[in-house]
Model the fold of this input.
Amino acid sequence: MAAGEYVSVSSQADTERADLARESKELATNPEQEHAELMSIYVKRGLDEPLASSVATQLMTRDALSAHARDELGISDTLAAKPVQAAFASAATFAAGAAFPLLVVLLLPNAALMWGVASSSLLFLALLGLLAARVGGAPVLPSVTRVSCWGALAMALTAIIGAFIGASV
Ligand SMILES: [Zn+2]
Done:
């Protein structure tokens, strides 16, 4: 789980790094074109051309690459993918998520155990997916959906394997 999280966020970080490398090369080789690009982004956002031009000039004088990263590529410091944090959050929340269903096992009567544990596990997984997304600064809905779906799949597989083993013993 944590490993998967690390891989997916790492590849996102790789993409961002590659985008930034290409952007800084373009800035070095073709600054006028890059200035026009930034300016047209600001015009689209509603500035008039002279203002857009001077905003682009001033931002590029201060820190051209981060102006382009933010406004052209949509990468900012707070958005930048953090694979290690994501993996850690995923591992921590997964461990915590396993603890809650154990509590449910202690509290529920035997007859209600199977569905009680399955549904409460899914609920906790969804909650913790939400928490992990908040901590990692990721979009909430995809995180919750992913954690719940993989959790449900893992439980279904476990149940199927359990049924086979149970039947053959
Ligand atoms: Zn650019």
